Amino acid sequence: MKRLLVLAAASVALFAQAQTYPGTKPITLVVPFAAGGPTDLVARQLGEAMRKTLPGSNFVVENVNGAGGTIGATKVAKAAPDGHTLLVWHIGMAATAGLYRKLQYKPLEDFEYLGMINDVPMTLIGKPQLPANTYRDFENYIRANGGALNIAHAGLGSASHLCGLMWQSAVNAKEAMTTIPFNGTAPAMTALMGGQVDLMCDQTTNTTQQIEAGRVKAFAVTTAGRLNNHKLLKDYPSLQEMGLKGFNLTVWHGMYAPKGTPPAVLKQLNEAMKAALKDPEFLKRQEALGAVVVTDKRVDPEGHKAFVTAEIAKLKPAIEAAGKFAD
Ligand code: MLT
């Protein structure tokens, strides 16, 4: 009898929790890179859409920079599991698992997986003064001058870092370029447009407008095929088309809560997120920048976690082949 009473009390408490969440306290979306970059953009646009699908919610974005996104991820892994501190992160969740030997959290154990958001292609871009206008010119220029050039990224294990490593490995660049880390690809883009760095590989959500405005030069996309559905990006070849067989890199984004967040809260968040992914305004804004909103089983926690588990295994050899490790 006592056990029944305890179970009844627990379920009443859980029900009450779900009824009161999110309450008046804002929900913080931690973005582990600088404001204005592609990760920040996804979080802000998703937060705006979820305000409509999670009644009474108020989302705020907090940029917690550093160490390729792992400092922000650590903050969320150690946050109170009350549904008020969430992480919006990308392929770095998997890439850093293979790059960093001393993470302060376990990627597959210290988070509740809330579902995936989108898949974003990347573009190889250069400063306006770069003496190349086609991908072929670009690759020949890098082969001839690689050792004297620098490539920007958002820290070890960031998407831009991973892409730069994979591309240099794929073209067998003789001398590695100097890598210049930034707190995100927003400041990196500013440096590129100003000619302070030579090239970068970054997500279309951050590069499309700059390419269109002629503030940077674009040479190729990193997806297996061309982005034929995009009015601007369709004109750029894929790296695979340019002879880099098998090159296929897309930056996926997901949302996470600290382990131990109540199931009723997780369910509310996942349902609100899935509804937000169908929001016409969210879809329009994402598609305009080349992003593809997730519609498959990765929108559910189980599918999200299974996908990231597979990505960790897939990326490890690619990172080791590029021979770069960071503690
Ligand atoms: C990355 O390269 O990982 C991202 O573009 C970083 C960012 O969102 O600024």
Blueprint of the fold:
Blueprint: H1 2-20, E1 27-31, H2 38-53, E2 59-63, H3 70-77, E3 85-89, H4 92-99, E4 111-126, H5 135-145, E5 150-153, H6 159-170, E6 178-181, H7 185-193, E7 199-203, H8 204-212, E8 217-221, E9 250-258, H9 263-277, H10 280-288, E10 292-293, H11 301-321
Parallel strand pairs: 1-2, 1-3, 5-6, 5-7
Antiparallel strand pairs: 3-9, 4-7, 4-8, 4-9, 4-10
The structure holds D-malate.
For this entry, what is the oligomeric state of its chains?
A: single chain
First-residue to last-residue Cα separation: 54 Å
Low-confidence regions = none
Strand fraction band?
15-25%
CATH superfamily of the largest domain: Bordetella uptake gene, domain 1
Number of domains: 2
Question: Could you spell the SSE succession in H and E letters?
Answer: HEHEHEHEHEHEHEHEEHHEH
Beta strands, count = 10
Quickly count the helices: 11
Radius of gyration: 21 Å
- The general outline is elongated
CATH class of the largest domain: Alpha Beta
Structural commentary:
This protein folds into 2 domains: 2-120 and 251-322, Bordetella uptake gene, domain 1 (D-Maltodextrin-Binding Protein, domain 2, 3-Layer(aba) Sandwich); 122-221, Periplasmic binding protein-like II (D-Maltodextrin-Binding Protein, domain 2), CATH 3.40.190. It contains 11 helices and 10 strands. Strands 1, 2, 3, 4, 5, 6, 7, 8, 9 and 10 form a 10-stranded mixed sheet that branches. The model has no long low-confidence stretch (mean pLDDT 93). Strand 5 (150-153), helix 6 and strand 6 (178-181) form a beta-alpha-beta unit. The protein starts with a helix and ends in a 6-residue tail after the last helix. With 327 residues, it is α/β, with parallel strands linked by helices. D-malate (MLT) binds next to helix 2, helix 6, helix 7 and strand 7.
